[in-house]
Description:
Low-confidence stretches: 1-5
Radius of gyration: 23 Å
Distance between the termini: 48 Å
Oligomer: single chain
Structural class: alpha/beta
Number of strands: 25
Number of helices: 17
Amino acid sequence: MPDSAYDARPWLDRYDQGQPSDLTPEFPDALAMFRAAVEHAPDVDALRYFDGHITYRELDELSDAFAAGLLATGFDRGDRVALYLQNDPQFAIGLVGTWKAGGIAVSINPMNRERELELLLTDSGARVLVCLQSLYRDVAARVLARTQVRTVLTTSELEHQTRDDPRAFTGVERLDLPDAVDLADLLQQYRGQRPSPVSFEPGDTAFLTYTSGTTGPPKGAMNTHGNVVFNSQTYRELCRLGPDDVVLGVAPLFHITGLIGHITLAMLLRAPLVLFHRFEPSLAIDTIREHRPTFTIGAITVFIALMNAPNAERDALASLEKIWSGGAPIPPSTVKAFSAQFGRYIHNAYGLTETTSPSHAVPAGAEAPVDDASGALSVGVPVYNTVVRIVGDDGRELPVGEVGEIVTSGPQVVSGYWGKPEETERALPGGALHTGDVGYMDPDGWFYIVDRKKDQINAGGYKIWPREVEDVLYEHDAVREAAVVGVPDAYRGETVKAFVSLRPGRTVTPEELIEFTKERMAAYKYPRQVEILDELPKTVTGKLLRRELRTRDRP
């Protein structure tokens, strides 16, 4: 692709001429991409984890053993394996091993609690659960009897390093869980066995990634092998990456950004992926100094945290030359401050679970413009082979500069939602994704997000469904009505605020309600603010006026 294509206007001109930039997938499926890395770079580190290293050859052997162990339990092609883990090597072993057994991986947020975990296991029909020992003890053991899970593999975050690094694991111990199979034992038992080779069509589902809607429970987006291969290549070309790069895993691996922008990208590059269990800013900086990564992508909250870490010296990120951020709006002031502190520019990116990571990005070598009127930073230009339209409420395409819903078509758009044909037709009519995000394109071809059509809250890249939080609040016997909205937050971009009215004669403090929800929800979901009102604002028909609540405290 010519360098001129990295400038926004020539890039979009190709679409105007009906000739989108060509990015032909190199591999039929994600497993073939991994096998090519094993063939051509067997002794290169695939994973680095504190002082531990796993080469592509070793990852091939470990994932073979994982697959052989699954198949010995009667695992069938198309069965689902749920990965309920932090950013540990076992996630990659389980992902590749699932593919080798002919299965579909299901990524689950390790912050999910019992109710949330049960919902996803039930919806996906997962037959196997791989989880941290602590998550099994504290969460999973209480719900598995009500799911289709028949095999549980537990593992410790202390595996795959030669010493238990005190920076991350003080007080952590390996547990003896007689009701589950220890993953390390299974890998040891089947090490050296090779399952029969399998292959996939580009349209076959590689994994399910769950996204919360605004009108119903979470939906499993079916990210296909074709989606995965295409957007792995998109990262490589757009960010100008190669086998000499080293990927830093700051995004959660269960999230689409971590899956594509970390795991499968590293496989495609035949490069190392550096993991450190869970993001903590000081530890991240130590990890950068030790392993010298060159590329990463994460939510803007990651980079704000790095700026404020106690060990954030000017040269702390010296090796990290290629940085992208996505998942939440980026204040232009933060980009400037980060550049001033570290001498590194944060490129913007935009996409959704349903676009298998980016649909738009700021190409390497370019800087995003800022909209004069709103002060918004551009999310970039459409990536390869991707056509993006701005449409009005009547479905008609709008001209340059006018605000409407962003509708995306391209090889990265998912085929639909698992077991939900009606939801699929509603969000993806004709295969075009109606994102629910509102924005516009400027005359030079740059796109801007100005609002969200949906009520979904975006807190530091984590998507939150207001009704889910409201349902938990309603479990408190003092709450009469509840409405949850997103409000501006300097660190997370947006945070969760709840407005409640109380039952007659009942009393409860905001702090008590926050603690009540905190005990029942993932850490990113519970409200950080609660305001108690005599009455919540409603329309004449009784519908809650979220719009009025959002603007209540604003000037």
